[in-house]
Write a structure and sequence with these properties.
This protein is of the alpha+beta class and 257 residues long. It folds into two domains: 112 residues, Ribosomal Protein L22, Chain A (Alpha-Beta Complex), CATH 3.90.470; 114 residues, Ribosomal Protein L22, Chain A (Alpha-Beta Complex), CATH 3.90.470. The chain is 29% helix and 28% strand. 38% of the residues are buried.
Length: 257
Protein backbone atom coordinates (compact mmCIF):
# COMPACT_ATOMS: atom_id res chain seq x y z
CA UNK A 1 0.00 0.00 0.00
CA UNK A 2 1.34 3.43 -0.97
CA UNK A 3 1.59 6.01 1.81
CA UNK A 4 0.18 9.42 0.88
CA UNK A 5 0.25 11.47 4.07
CA UNK A 6 2.73 12.39 6.78
CA UNK A 7 0.50 11.08 9.53
CA UNK A 8 0.91 7.38 10.23
CA UNK A 9 -2.37 5.68 9.34
CA UNK A 10 -3.24 2.21 10.68
CA UNK A 11 -1.63 -0.60 8.69
CA UNK A 12 -3.79 -2.72 6.44
CA UNK A 13 -2.20 -6.12 6.94
CA UNK A 14 -5.13 -7.86 5.25
CA UNK A 15 -4.55 -6.01 1.96
CA UNK A 16 -8.17 -4.83 1.75
CA UNK A 17 -6.89 -1.45 0.58
CA UNK A 18 -4.84 -1.65 -2.60
CA UNK A 19 -3.26 1.19 -4.56
CA UNK A 20 -3.74 4.69 -3.17
CA UNK A 21 -3.24 7.88 -5.14
CA UNK A 22 -3.36 11.40 -3.72
CA UNK A 23 -2.98 14.70 -5.52
CA UNK A 24 -4.15 18.30 -5.64
CA UNK A 25 -6.27 18.55 -8.77
CA UNK A 26 -4.72 21.27 -10.93
CA UNK A 27 -8.05 22.31 -12.44
CA UNK A 28 -10.07 22.68 -9.26
CA UNK A 29 -7.47 23.02 -6.48
CA UNK A 30 -9.15 20.34 -4.34
CA UNK A 31 -7.40 17.37 -2.74
CA UNK A 32 -8.31 14.10 -4.48
CA UNK A 33 -7.61 10.67 -2.97
CA UNK A 34 -8.36 7.44 -4.83
CA UNK A 35 -8.30 4.05 -3.09
CA UNK A 36 -8.59 0.69 -4.76
CA UNK A 37 -10.11 -1.96 -2.50
CA UNK A 38 -10.91 -5.66 -2.54
CA UNK A 39 -14.52 -6.21 -1.48
CA UNK A 40 -13.96 -9.98 -1.46
CA UNK A 41 -11.37 -9.53 1.28
CA UNK A 42 -13.63 -7.44 3.50
CA UNK A 43 -14.15 -8.36 7.15
CA UNK A 44 -16.09 -6.23 9.69
CA UNK A 45 -13.08 -6.04 12.02
CA UNK A 46 -11.27 -4.02 9.35
CA UNK A 47 -13.14 -0.94 10.57
CA UNK A 48 -11.34 -1.06 13.91
CA UNK A 49 -8.03 -2.04 12.34
CA UNK A 50 -8.15 0.91 9.93
CA UNK A 51 -9.35 3.37 12.56
CA UNK A 52 -12.75 4.01 10.95
CA UNK A 53 -15.95 4.07 13.01
CA UNK A 54 -18.85 2.00 11.68
CA UNK A 55 -22.08 4.02 12.07
CA UNK A 56 -25.29 2.35 13.23
CA UNK A 57 -26.77 3.01 9.80
CA UNK A 58 -24.10 0.78 8.24
CA UNK A 59 -24.03 -2.03 10.84
CA UNK A 60 -27.06 -3.79 9.38
CA UNK A 61 -26.11 -3.33 5.73
CA UNK A 62 -24.81 -6.05 3.43
CA UNK A 63 -21.03 -6.73 3.35
CA UNK A 64 -20.62 -5.07 -0.07
CA UNK A 65 -22.07 -1.81 1.26
CA UNK A 66 -19.93 -2.03 4.40
CA UNK A 67 -16.82 -2.54 2.25
CA UNK A 68 -17.65 0.45 0.03
CA UNK A 69 -18.35 2.65 3.03
CA UNK A 70 -15.08 1.64 4.71
CA UNK A 71 -13.01 2.32 1.59
CA UNK A 72 -14.67 5.69 1.07
CA UNK A 73 -14.17 6.78 4.68
CA UNK A 74 -10.57 5.56 4.61
CA UNK A 75 -9.95 7.68 1.51
CA UNK A 76 -11.55 10.59 3.36
CA UNK A 77 -9.30 10.05 6.39
CA UNK A 78 -6.24 10.19 4.14
CA UNK A 79 -7.50 13.28 2.34
CA UNK A 80 -8.27 15.16 5.56
CA UNK A 81 -4.68 14.81 6.74
CA UNK A 82 -3.70 17.29 4.03
CA UNK A 83 -6.01 20.05 5.31
CA UNK A 84 -4.81 22.51 7.94
CA UNK A 85 -8.12 22.65 9.88
CA UNK A 86 -7.93 18.94 10.83
CA UNK A 87 -4.39 17.80 10.03
CA UNK A 88 -3.03 15.27 12.56
CA UNK A 89 -6.38 15.10 14.33
CA UNK A 90 -8.34 11.89 14.83
CA UNK A 91 -11.54 12.94 13.06
CA UNK A 92 -14.34 10.82 11.63
CA UNK A 93 -16.60 11.62 8.69
CA UNK A 94 -20.06 10.77 9.96
CA UNK A 95 -23.24 9.97 8.06
CA UNK A 96 -26.34 12.18 7.99
CA UNK A 97 -30.01 11.29 8.04
CA UNK A 98 -30.03 11.30 4.24
CA UNK A 99 -26.80 9.23 4.10
CA UNK A 100 -24.78 12.33 3.25
CA UNK A 101 -21.24 12.63 4.68
CA UNK A 102 -20.88 14.88 7.75
CA UNK A 103 -17.57 16.72 7.47
CA UNK A 104 -15.53 18.34 10.26
CA UNK A 105 -15.91 22.07 10.82
CA UNK A 106 -14.00 24.11 8.27
CA UNK A 107 -14.08 21.37 5.61
CA UNK A 108 -16.18 20.63 2.53
CA UNK A 109 -15.92 17.26 0.85
CA UNK A 110 -17.52 14.51 -1.15
CA UNK A 111 -17.13 10.74 -1.55
CA UNK A 112 -17.97 8.38 -4.39
CA UNK A 113 -17.27 4.76 -5.20
CA UNK A 114 -17.79 2.41 -8.10
CA UNK A 115 -16.67 -1.17 -8.51
CA UNK A 116 -13.42 -1.60 -6.58
CA UNK A 117 -12.53 2.10 -6.40
CA UNK A 118 -13.42 4.78 -3.83
CA UNK A 119 -12.65 8.45 -4.38
CA UNK A 120 -12.76 11.43 -2.05
CA UNK A 121 -12.43 15.16 -2.71
CA UNK A 122 -11.89 17.69 0.11
CA UNK A 123 -11.15 21.38 0.49
CA UNK A 124 -11.04 24.02 3.18
CA UNK A 125 -14.39 25.76 3.50
CA UNK A 126 -12.64 29.09 3.20
CA UNK A 127 -11.61 28.06 -0.34
CA UNK A 128 -14.79 26.31 -1.54
CA UNK A 129 -18.44 26.73 -0.61
CA UNK A 130 -19.59 23.62 -2.44
CA UNK A 131 -17.89 20.44 -3.61
CA UNK A 132 -19.22 17.26 -5.16
CA UNK A 133 -17.48 14.30 -6.78
CA UNK A 134 -18.92 11.36 -8.68
CA UNK A 135 -17.37 8.45 -10.55
CA UNK A 136 -19.33 6.15 -12.87
CA UNK A 137 -18.56 3.24 -15.16
CA UNK A 138 -19.81 3.79 -18.70
CA UNK A 139 -23.51 3.00 -18.94
CA UNK A 140 -24.20 -0.04 -21.18
CA UNK A 141 -25.79 0.80 -24.53
CA UNK A 142 -28.97 -1.14 -23.71
CA UNK A 143 -29.41 0.74 -20.43
CA UNK A 144 -28.75 4.06 -22.18
CA UNK A 145 -31.85 3.58 -24.29
CA UNK A 146 -33.92 2.81 -21.20
CA UNK A 147 -32.87 5.81 -19.11
CA UNK A 148 -31.91 8.45 -21.68
CA UNK A 149 -35.14 10.43 -21.33
CA UNK A 150 -34.82 10.43 -17.52
CA UNK A 151 -31.20 11.56 -17.35
CA UNK A 152 -31.06 14.13 -20.14
CA UNK A 153 -33.23 16.10 -22.53
CA UNK A 154 -32.92 15.67 -26.27
CA UNK A 155 -31.15 19.04 -26.44
CA UNK A 156 -28.56 17.91 -23.89
CA UNK A 157 -27.84 14.69 -25.74
CA UNK A 158 -27.54 16.55 -29.04
CA UNK A 159 -25.16 19.07 -27.46
CA UNK A 160 -22.71 16.32 -26.56
CA UNK A 161 -23.19 14.26 -29.72
CA UNK A 162 -22.26 17.27 -31.87
CA UNK A 163 -18.85 17.18 -30.16
CA UNK A 164 -18.38 13.58 -31.28
CA UNK A 165 -19.11 11.81 -27.99
CA UNK A 166 -20.75 8.41 -28.25
CA UNK A 167 -24.17 7.84 -26.72
CA UNK A 168 -22.64 5.89 -23.82
CA UNK A 169 -20.04 8.52 -23.01
CA UNK A 170 -22.46 11.42 -23.43
CA UNK A 171 -25.16 9.97 -21.20
CA UNK A 172 -22.70 8.78 -18.55
CA UNK A 173 -21.08 12.21 -18.48
CA UNK A 174 -24.39 14.01 -18.03
CA UNK A 175 -25.43 11.50 -15.35
CA UNK A 176 -22.15 11.83 -13.46
CA UNK A 177 -22.01 15.62 -13.75
CA UNK A 178 -25.53 16.00 -12.36
CA UNK A 179 -24.72 13.60 -9.53
CA UNK A 180 -21.68 15.68 -8.61
CA UNK A 181 -23.81 18.84 -8.71
CA UNK A 182 -26.38 17.25 -6.39
CA UNK A 183 -23.66 16.28 -3.90
CA UNK A 184 -22.17 19.77 -4.12
CA UNK A 185 -25.42 21.64 -3.47
CA UNK A 186 -27.25 19.33 -1.06
CA UNK A 187 -25.49 20.62 2.10
CA UNK A 188 -26.67 24.14 1.24
CA UNK A 189 -30.23 23.46 0.05
CA UNK A 190 -30.98 20.33 2.16
CA UNK A 191 -33.47 19.42 -0.52
CA UNK A 192 -33.48 16.43 -2.84
CA UNK A 193 -33.72 17.26 -6.53
CA UNK A 194 -33.70 15.24 -9.70
CA UNK A 195 -31.96 15.38 -13.05
CA UNK A 196 -34.61 17.74 -14.40
CA UNK A 197 -33.43 20.58 -12.12
CA UNK A 198 -30.16 21.06 -14.05
CA UNK A 199 -29.41 21.14 -17.77
CA UNK A 200 -26.11 20.76 -19.60
CA UNK A 201 -25.75 23.95 -21.65
CA UNK A 202 -22.10 24.01 -22.75
CA UNK A 203 -19.39 21.43 -23.37
CA UNK A 204 -15.74 22.44 -23.63
CA UNK A 205 -13.77 19.35 -24.54
CA UNK A 206 -10.48 21.25 -24.69
CA UNK A 207 -10.46 21.72 -20.90
CA UNK A 208 -12.89 18.89 -20.04
CA UNK A 209 -15.59 21.20 -18.69
CA UNK A 210 -19.36 20.71 -18.78
CA UNK A 211 -21.48 23.69 -17.74
CA UNK A 212 -24.72 22.87 -15.92
CA UNK A 213 -27.53 25.38 -15.48
CA UNK A 214 -30.18 25.18 -12.76
CA UNK A 215 -33.76 25.86 -13.74
CA UNK A 216 -34.74 29.35 -12.64
CA UNK A 217 -37.45 28.23 -10.23
CA UNK A 218 -35.08 26.02 -8.21
CA UNK A 219 -32.26 28.56 -8.22
CA UNK A 220 -34.55 31.34 -7.00
CA UNK A 221 -36.09 29.13 -4.31
CA UNK A 222 -32.68 28.45 -2.76
CA UNK A 223 -31.00 31.76 -3.60
CA UNK A 224 -28.43 30.03 -5.80
CA UNK A 225 -26.52 31.07 -8.91
CA UNK A 226 -27.72 29.20 -11.97
CA UNK A 227 -24.49 28.13 -13.71
CA UNK A 228 -21.93 25.59 -12.44
CA UNK A 229 -18.78 24.24 -14.06
CA UNK A 230 -18.17 20.51 -13.81
CA UNK A 231 -14.61 19.35 -14.45
CA UNK A 232 -14.59 15.81 -15.79
CA UNK A 233 -12.03 13.10 -16.52
CA UNK A 234 -12.65 10.49 -19.21
CA UNK A 235 -11.18 7.07 -18.50
CA UNK A 236 -11.28 4.05 -20.77
CA UNK A 237 -14.32 2.60 -19.01
CA UNK A 238 -15.28 5.31 -16.52
CA UNK A 239 -15.97 9.01 -16.01
CA UNK A 240 -15.17 11.14 -12.96
CA UNK A 241 -16.85 14.49 -12.37
CA UNK A 242 -16.02 17.25 -9.88
CA UNK A 243 -18.24 20.28 -9.33
CA UNK A 244 -16.94 22.90 -6.92
CA UNK A 245 -16.63 26.62 -6.38
CA UNK A 246 -17.63 29.62 -4.30
CA UNK A 247 -20.99 31.34 -4.11
CA UNK A 248 -21.01 35.04 -5.02
CA UNK A 249 -23.32 35.72 -2.06
CA UNK A 250 -21.72 33.53 0.62
CA UNK A 251 -23.14 35.35 3.64
CA UNK A 252 -26.73 34.72 2.57
CA UNK A 253 -26.41 30.96 2.27
CA UNK A 254 -27.20 28.43 4.98
CA UNK A 255 -24.48 25.90 4.21
CA UNK A 256 -23.70 23.37 6.91
CA UNK A 257 -20.33 24.04 8.56
Amino acid sequence: MQEVTAKIMPRDDRQFIGKVHSEVDKRTGVRLVTCEFDAAGYQPELYAELGIAMPEAIVGSVPKRQAEFLAGRYAAALALQHLAPVRNQDVQVGIGEQRNPLWPSGVVGSISHVGSVAVCAVSRRMDKDYLGIDVEVLIPTRVCREIAAIVATRQERELLSVEGLSERVALTLIFSAKESLFKALYPSVRDYFGFEVAEAVELRLADHTLVLRLVERFANKHNLPRDYQCQFTLGEHWIQSVTCGQFPHRANLKAID
